[in-house]
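Worked example 2:
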Amino acid sequence: MKFIHAKDLSEKEDLEVEDAQEEASQPKSRRVQKERAKKEPPSAQTAALRLISMRDHSGRQLREKLSERGYSPEEIEEALVFLREKRFLDDLRFGRNLIRYMAERRYFGAYKIRMELSLRLDREYIDQLFPDELENYDFAALAKELVNKPQLRGKSREALIRKLKANGYGVSEIRFALADVPREKN
């Protein structure tokens, strides 16, 4: 192996060596990011596929995210049509999964579920999901389960009422859930 001294290099060669050393010293991820930045941005379809691969989205959510990234409405609609044809995007499935998650895991009532869905889905899909999907849940029993959670034990009746209202339960469901909770004496 032959060693070359810097004094033996021309000025141009010296600069090339310095650039190569600087590039090698940078972490790979930065180099990869620079190379990606130089390339053309991905199509709306590719960007939508990337988003869907991370987690399930509704058409409305994808439309908003792609719009924020600067894609034209035509490109966005083409991408959504493609995703629906391939069944990667299904707003009704997304809505059913979201209802199940909010009812079973978050203990939300029907009012709160409808409000949350209105933030994520187009109205036509919400109308198709309601009230049929909610018939699968006994919200009075869910409210009672929520009241019996360890983190809510010992809370005042008023605090429990506020919690149940905030979670979207109706008056009859709240009454059922609090039937066993004693009233405070004045």
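The chain has eleven helices and no strands. The chain has a mean pLDDT of 86.
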